[in-house]
Amino acid sequence: MMLGLYTLPQWVLLFFSYGFLGWVWESGYVSVRQKHWVNRGFLHGPVIPIYGFGAVAILALCAPVAGSLPLLFFSGMFWATALEYATGWAMEQMFHVRYWDYTNEKWNLNGYICLMASLCWGLFSVLLLRGIQPPLAGIITALSGPAAAMLAGALALAFAADVAVSTREALDLRRLLEQLSASRRQIARLERRLEIAGVFWEQDVRQALNGLRREGEQAAGAISLRLEAARERRRKMLWQMSRQLEQLRREGRLHPGLTGPEQKVIQQELSAMHRRTDDMYLRAARVLRRNPGSTTSRHTEAMEELRSLTGSEA
């Protein structure tokens, strides 16, 4: 193992160096595919941690077999793939979002890893130890001890701040997706109960419901304008539902015991709508734009709605 070859500050600098190179690679690749610039990654800054951790792990664990190209390739592939699977699984459990998804790739395992990505990790491992590491190590070890410590400390502080901000945004995205999913379920249950009771919606209410399901698709301009347009459609739809419920109650076409709980649901939806602020949507949009391929199996429709509202289509 190579742990004793470098000091702690030097390991930190290696982590950030490879995290930066990973960011350059992924941002460039995704930007070409998206046909516009994408600041790729979970963080705001030019670092993708999984590349930094992966490189450090490969340096520490694969150095003993660096003399054998096949062993280096397969050991690097194994350790990097294991790290990718563990990271993808942990992030989905925490944030309910997959920040990369190989589900549509051949020979994938639960969407977290796939054969092609693993082969790339093996190639990167060979390139790292045989090509990049020698000159990079020469640059880092040329720094004096105090200089390396100061630079590593400054980068670590900036990294910690970025992690804190980005984690908050990711948790906000999770909460927003949960709220949008809950809202969709509430409205669907309300519509279903009333239809079971023999209520046939007036045309304007049906149009409002259809507009709600498509909200944001035809909206243009800034995110704030899209959000306000969507809120106005939702307010109109809920108000029309409330008005018709009251009318049906007065006409005796609906049991009075049904209208009370359903009116309460409508009021809850109005309150929840106002609690979803523009800032929450904007923070979620930043996460989605940095990760255009992100998916979620728990809140699929809510994710589609959110991407449409914020202009963050995959």
List keywords for this structure.
2 domains; mainly alpha; 10 helices
Describe, in plain words, how this protein is organized in 3D.
- The chain is an all-alpha fold.
- It has 2 domains: 6-143, no CATH class; 166-310.
- The protein is built from 10 helices and 2 strands; from the N terminus they run αααββααααααα.
- Strands 1-2 form a two-stranded antiparallel sheet.
- Helix 1 crosses helix 4 (115-142), helix 5 packs across helix 10 (300-310) and helix 7 packs antiparallel against helix 8 (256-275).
- The longest helix has 52 residues, at 145-196.
- The protein is elongated and about 85 Å long.
- Residues 200-205 and 215-221 have low confidence and may be disordered.
- The chain crosses the membrane at residues 6-25, 46-66, 72-91, 112-132, 138-165.
- This is Putative membrane protein.
Can you summarize the main beta sheet? Answer: 2 strands, antiparallel
Task: Calculate the mean pLDDT score and round it.
Answer: 84
Structural class: mainly alpha
Strand order of the largest sheet: 1-2
**Number of helical stretches of at least 4 residues:** 10
How many structural domains are formed by the residues? 2
User: What overall form do the CA principal axes indicate?
Assistant: elongated
Give me the Rg, rounded: 26 Å
Helix proportion of residues, in percent?
over 70%
Q: Could you give the count of β-strands?
A: 2
Give the amount of beta strand, in percent.
Answer: under 5%
Terminal Cα span: 41 Å
What are the segments in which pLDDT stays under 50 over at least 5 consecutive residues? 200-205, 215-221
The arrangement of helices and strands along the chain is HHHEEHHHHHHH
Protein name: Putative membrane protein
Transmembrane segments: 6-25, 46-66, 72-91, 112-132, 138-165
InterPro entries: CmpB_TMEM229
Keywords: Membrane, Transmembrane, Transmembrane helix
